[in-house]
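Hi D.,

Good news: the full-assembly prediction came through. Inputs first.
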Amino acid sequence: MLSMNRIQEEIASVAARYIVEDGLEFGPAKHQALKTLGVSAKVPLPSNEVLEEAVFEHLSLYAQETQVQELQTLRTLALTWMRRLEVFRPHLTGAVWKGFATSKSDIYLQLFCDDSKSAEIELINQGLDYQVSAVKGFRGEIVDALSLNIKHPELGVFVGLHLMVYDLDDLRGALKPNAKGRIQRGDAKALQKLLDASLPDEGMC
Amino acid sequence: MLIASKRVAAPGVQFVPFAKKVDHSMSSNPLFAKRSLLTALGIGCALAGLGVSWWREKSRQEAVLSLEARNALWQAQLEASSSETVSLSDFKGRKLVINFWATWCVPCVEEMPLLDAFFQQNAAKDWKVLGLAIDQPSLVKKFLTQRPVSYPILLAGLQGTELSRLLGDEQGGLPFTVVLSEAGQVAFRKMGKLHPEDLQSWLKI
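Then the structure:
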């Protein structure tokens, strides 16, 4: 029993490295970790919660100045788009929200709409190029993902932006913290708070 | 209406029998000959117009990759012919040529020297080329000992078939080539053998 826990921790810490350094999603990172460690595919994989803690541990040990800056840039960019799409109650999620985004990360916004077509119509009205696909949502159901490529106005780099279209009802209970006390998504106000909190204390004009 | 046309492709098919009917009834009468010619021309132009707008719509929407396609692409971990594991996420944000091929596919094999020359000339300009073999690993490795190329060859197998479909090779034909810009936009896509002009056009990306 103890050794099984040990194996899971090992898988989680290797997977965490793939998530932070290669920008892999949780699922593929776990499988890649299995391969790297040469562990049988029958070994139960660590849960996402366990893996998330491993990611934060990895960051606290190896975090680099560049990662902090890249995260800050992506969060600022996300905030701009959240304001642009305000009527759809956008909530930031994924690595950019949680804090382990790097330059390889995309921005994931969950939209909670009264009318599921309205977000798509808004993109067309704004003349934006996007592509639709169906992906698994956070409640396990299939949702539409509207994907765009956006350009950072100052840095000139391109970032993938994905708008996951949910119903207004899905917002109920979506802001409750998980067992580890982490909240899985945040609106523009919550994001602004994160940005304000990470402003440097010194060297300000 | 707009949404419908984004999701379902190709309007205009129903116009074809209509054009035939007009042509038939009037051509025998000389009085109507000129008018029928004009009508036919008009319909021809309308059809051409529709064709163009359909093509524009199609190419416009396909320039952006869906979340499903991005996940399949950037999360892929493939074994190279050199036996090391390659994360496709390492190529994110680069100008990237992805060529799907197989050892038994004659046009695929014929275009490989072109791709190889392109890679050698442009690798220094930050161009990446990947050959994704949809074939048996042993056959690929044997083939490469006889006809080596300088760009990496990845043993993609069934995962490669799925990836090529998501990148727009709906019929699963080979060779299939996709070029991605630094912004992650599809800048070129071709099913069939590449010509030197195709490769020339990539340099403008």
